[in-house]
Design a protein that fits this description.
single chain; alpha+beta; six-stranded antiparallel β-sheet; two-stranded antiparallel sheet; 10 helices; 8 strands; 20% strand; disordered C terminus
Length: 309
């Protein structure tokens, strides 16, 4: 179970271990973040503990998340959708729709992709730093990665390939994170999204709620019409239809958000929610890894002399 949390310059409250001193880490982080809540000074980084690199990358991700979140809010507050009327030749009906008329700018997609890249890089850096502390050197060090598998049956092979030379307790710890389908899906999805292109990477979506049939008739008689659903390919929803043979309409609450588009496994998931969850997952992994390295003697209090407060 994680320790209680306190508020910090990160987007999320950080656990107390980051402020109270596992191997003096608390004092080190306070010194780092007093230097700047946005960027970490090179002087302090030169003195930092072995895990300063993933900490710094996560700090960058936090800054970019704030910009992303602000951009999403600005977009959703704008006129990005409209009611349109079209004649459908196939059905012979006049269709009234809510349609997306303006998509999020490339700057929002760029920020999301950069945050994903930072988060995934932080995982590899956690593994790399731990390998250095474990005594891995040379070509073997270049093959160190945080183990993630797209196929559950291949997860053990991923550990062998990516964690060769790591302390057995560290391998056991990394195995416990279950970064494979059916285990820790957030890590698997993060790894998959990082490898995708940008076509419709970020799209607006609508959630339909509290649907109330307003009018439904066919040739003058009441008729049952299925509730409308959001068409993710056309980025629209039909709310009303009229023809010489019948008509229907619905009242419904539409709630818009910005989600992943044509991306396997995360399609339709709100971007900000996903990045929130993946960040929290990586912070947990960092915490548990640092605790384990301290417990098995890969770091000592002297490594952090001068940062203890």
């Amino acid at each position: 179970m994680l320790s209680p949390a306190v508020w910090s310059p990160f987007f999320f409250p950080l656990p107390l271990w980051l402020t109270e001193g596992l191997c003096g880490i608390g004092g080190m982080l306070r010194a780092l973040f007093r230097a700047s809540s946005r960027f970490l000074s090179s002087e302090l980084l030169a003195m930092a503990n072995p895990y300063h690199s993933p900490i710094r990358v996560l700090a960058k991700a936090k800054t970019k998340y704030e910009a992303l979140n602000s951009g999403i809010k600005t977009y959703l507050a704008s006129d990005f959708h409209a009611e349109v009327k079209e004649f459908d030749l196939k059905s012979g009906c006049h269709l009234y729709k809510h349609r997306i008329t303006r998509f999020p700018g490339e700057d929002i997609a760029d920020l999301a992709y950069e945050i994903i890249d930072h988060q995934r890089s932080a995982l590899d850096q956690i593994a790399y730093v731990t390998a250095v502390m474990s005594g891995v050197t040379g070509n073997a060090l270049e093959r160190i990665h945080f183990p993630i598998s797209r196929v559950s049956a291949d997860f053990e092979n991923a550990i062998k390939r990516s964690c060769n030379g790591l302390h057995p307790d560290i391998k056991t710890l990394f195995r416990s994170f279950k970064a494979h389908p059916g285990g820790n899906d957030i890590l698997v999805e993060l790894n998959g999204v990082r490898k995708k292109g940008f076509h419709r990477f970020i799209v607006p979506v609508a959630t339909v709620a509290n649907v109330t049939p307003g009018l439904a008739s066919m040739q003058g008689k009441p008729a049952y019409i299925p509730a409308p659903v959001w068409d993710s390919k056309k980025h629209e929803i039909i709310c009303k239809s009229e023809s010489d043979y019948g008509r229907f309409s619905f009242d419904a609450e539409l709630t818009f958000n910005v989600a992943f588009g044509e991306v396997d496994s995360v399609a339709g998931k709100p971007v900000a929610t996903f990045l929130h969850a993946s960040y929290a997952e990586i912070v947990d992994i960092l915490e548990l890894t640092m605790r384990k390295t301290a417990k098995i003697g890969l770091c000592s209090m002297s490594d952090y002399e001068g940062f203890i407060t």
